[in-house]
């Protein structure tokens, strides 16, 4: 289906472009959300008449998005989740979770504005893109941790998983040292009994 875009759509085109898309994409996404119209003669003529209004509205929305971008870009948010000792989350951090976190932080965000390249399923620092406007993107850092202390350690650049491994190794060494000492004492006692 041929459509005329009423705003910039990522990976598709700019406002006013006439593009061919699959029927389902047009009917289920672009047309209902007001991002495009069918490319008929009447709609093309109507678009040209409304173009100045659409561009003015787009410019206004872009300025608002740039104001939010100035405050939001580079911000860091902490997400506390349950995870295994290897750092695998029990579940994942979804776009809904991120949008809720940003909204709590004072940045009104819908989940369709959050762009994840892949699901967040591990502890650590993750960069996430937020689409404030089709032409304005911000990047925020999510600090995914099990506790607030771990989040602070990750923010300082420490490897919390490595720290946990070191603690486990120290506990194991202490356990085996105690076991070896106890075993040595027992064998010494047995040796003395045999020698007597």
TrEMBL record:
One of the GO BP terms on file: translation
Transmembrane spans: none
Pfam family, one: Ribosomal_L9_C
Keyword Electron transport: no
Coiled coil start-end: 37-71
Region (Disordered): 177-196
SUPFAM superfamilies: L9 N-domain-like (SSF55658), Ribosomal protein L9 C-domain (SSF55653)
Similarity field: Belongs to the bacterial ribosomal protein bL9 family.
PANTHER family: 50S RIBOSOMAL PROTEIN L9 (PTHR21368)
Protein's job: Binds to the 23S rRNA.
Protein name as catalogued: Large ribosomal subunit protein bL9
Naturally occurring in which organism (per UniProt): Tepidicaulis marinus
GN (gene name): rplI
